[in-house]
Specification:
Structural class of chain B: alpha+beta
Radius of gyration of chain A: 31 Å
Largest interface: A-B, 44 and 42 residues
CATH class of the largest domain in chain B: Alpha Beta
Keywords (chain B): Mitochondrion, Ribonucleoprotein, Ribosomal protein
Radius of gyration of chain B: 26 Å
Largest sheet of chain B: 4 strands, mixed
GO molecular function (chain B): structural constituent of ribosome
CATH topology of the largest domain in chain A: Ribulose 1,5 Bisphosphate Carboxylase/Oxygenase
Main location (chain B): mitochondrion
CATH superfamily of the largest domain in chain A: Ribosomal protein L1/L10, rRNA-binding domain
Oligomer: heterodimer
Strand order of the largest sheet of chain A: 2-7-8-1-9-10
CATH architecture of the largest domain in chain B: 3-Layer(aba) Sandwich
Number of strands of chain B: 6
Number of domains of chain B: 2
Protein name (chain B): CI-B8 domain-containing protein
Order of helices and strands of chain A: HHEEEHEHEHHEHEEHEE
Organism (chain B): Bombardia bombarda
Number of helices of chain B: 8
Chain lengths: ~300, ~210
């Protein structure tokens, strides 16, 4: 059998451009004949590596250790109230409980190494759809306690079975230390891992104190660094500037603490903070609060959306 | 994150929200604005929708303190109205003590809704309401009626802003030319790919038949 490469090459010549030189003309198109039967066309320049234009070696792409960071001097940075004024104008007429303010914190950081990942309880929580699943020995006093604390799914083997069937009625999952061994044996990491639900000691979701953990989970939110940026929803459109600034401040304190606590071999530092919203553009914040327009007061931004 | 310069170009489009049709400062006596129209554009609801999308953000930017409530209803046959609430000092004087005791407008104002729940609130004592019918009308006409009814003062861009606006227009023109060039290159590439793919599939068919 003829080699495919040779075959394709002669075909490509046929379809893209007419050969520069006359070849033996035949009634049957060349690609209909197996290439063994047709004598291959030879050119003066020869084929392959012997003579002709030499291919330039492909330049190796430069690799960077750090995520790219930009010079921020051309960036117009605004105060929180100014950003809110613009965002509220962009989002006018949308349901305020649906539209969220979002914040993105860009870090100067290496591409490899540990990432920031933590949980935070904002001073003004706004997420109310937390449904908690609890893994603990069946029908134990622990299970009863978890149910009383508001867990929607409690159990061990029964819960694993429903997870394997794809029935996941919760969006947060915690595990008691007594059930840790059972969880490891259950082999459900494949189902839970991609959803970020797999309990682990690292995320403090394997616990012996349900009360504290569940309290922290309700109204608490997770954030993590991806591609050198920590993003998180930080408030509802209906929030006043004071509420939003409290949330942003708390969040920034947490991120700063995480940045400082990371291993010294992988230095990280804050680069830029951007506030945006569900449909609005992103505004780079300059850390100030008050509006710059003297005609606008903070109270003006309290109005109902 | 995207580069700073590219983001700045996008952000300069913010000029669009500061200036253009709808950029106007409302007089002090406008207390709130309420719009009601259907979710979809059929049956004469396109103008109101355009007014909301294009003009209302500018109004909101210049009058952040005025609640502007949009109520989008599921019923296409329903009315499309724009209600402007004015504080009327004469009415307040006539009502006397009662007006001062009356609940503040804010507490009775619903939040915007996309399921028809934010019905136009009843006017409080000392308030009068002007309604503009928006059905089957273009957004320009609605805006004109609105500005006439309220006596809003249009905002004029400063010299600096005018220069920036011109820059933005130039940039847009340039980008359109670039887009056209890019589109042609893409088309040529796609055409070539299609020819190759067809030749390949023909060759495969011949091979299979042998």
């Amino acid at each position: 059998m003829a080699s495919t490469n040779q075959f394709l090459a002669s075909m490509a010549r046929l379809s893209l451009a007419t050969p520069a030189r006359p070849t033996t003309v035949s009634a049957i198109p060349k690609f209909l004949l197996p290439s063994v039967a047709t004598p291959s066309v030879r050119y003066a320049s020869g084929s392959g590596g012997s003579g002709g234009m030499k291919k330039r070696p492909v330049k190796k792409k430069k690799t960077y250790k750090l995520f790219r960071s930009y010079d921020l001097s051309p960036m117009e940075q605004v105060s929180l109230c100014d950003a809110m004024r613009y965002i509220r104008a962009f989002e006018v007429g949308h349901t305020p409980s649906v539209i969220k303010y979002e914040v993105a914190v860009k870090l100067k950081t290496q591409k490899n190494g540990p990432v920031i990942r933590n949980r935070i309880r904002l001073p003004f929580p706004f997420k109310t759809d937390t449904r908690i699943g609890v893994i603990c020995p069946e029908d134990s006093p622990l299970a009863l306690e978890a149910q009383q604390l508001g867990a929607v799914a409690v159990g061990e083997e029964s819960l694993f079975e429903s997870i394997r069937q794809g029935k996941i009625p919760f969006n947060k999952l915690i595990c008691h230390t007594d059930s840790e061994a059972a969880l490891k044996k259950a082999n459900i990491g494949k189902m839970l891992g991609p959803k970020g639900l797999m309990p682990s000691a690292k995320t403090k979701t394997i616990t012996s104190d349900f009360k504290a953990t569940i309290h922290e989970l309700i109204g608490a939110d997770e954030y993590r660094e991806r591609n050198g940026v920590v993003r998180m929803a930080i408030g509802q459109l209906g929030f006043t500037p004071k509420m939003l600034s409290d949330n942003v401040k708390t969040f920034m304190e947490h991120v700063k603490r995480d940045v400082n606590s990371i291993d010294d071999n992988f230095p990280k530092s804050l680069d830029e903070v951007v506030l945006s919203s569900t449909n609005g553009p992103g505004f780079s914040l300059n850390g100030k609060f008050s509006p710059t327009d003297p005609k606008i007061t903070v109270e003006d931004l309290h109005s109902i959306m | 994150m995207v580069g700073v310069l590219r983001r700045m170009n996008v952000l300069r489009a913010l000029l669009n929200i500061r200036h253009g049709p709808g950029a106007a400062v409302l007089p002090q006596d406008v207390t709130r604005i309420h719009l009601e129209f259907a979710m979809k554009m059929n049956d004469g609801h396109m103008g109101p929708k355009k007014f909301w999308r294009e003009n209302l953000p500018r109004l909101k930017f210049w009058n952040p303190a005025v609640p502007m409530i949009v109520n989008r209803t599921p019923s296409q046959t329903g009315a499309a109205t724009l209600s402007v609430y004015f504080r009327d000092d004469a009415l307040i004087a006539a009502a006397g003590e009662d007006a001062a005791a009356a609940p503040k407008a804010d507490s009775a104002t619903p939040t915007s809704s996309s399921s028809g729940h934010a019905k136009a609130p009843a006017h409080t004592q000392g308030e009068r309401v002007v309604t503009i019918d928006m059905k089957n009308r273009r957004s320009e006409m609605i805006l004109k009626d609105f500005l006439d009814a309220t006596g809003a003062v249009p905002v004029v861009p400063t010299n600096q802003e005018e220069i920036e606006m011109k820059d933005m227009a130039d940039l847009k023109r340039k980008s359109e030319i670039d887009m056209e060039i890019g589109r042609k290159i893409q088309e040529a590439r796609k055409r070539e790919e299609a020819i190759l793919a067809q030749a390949r599939s023909e060759a495969a068919a011949i091979k299979a038949s042998q």
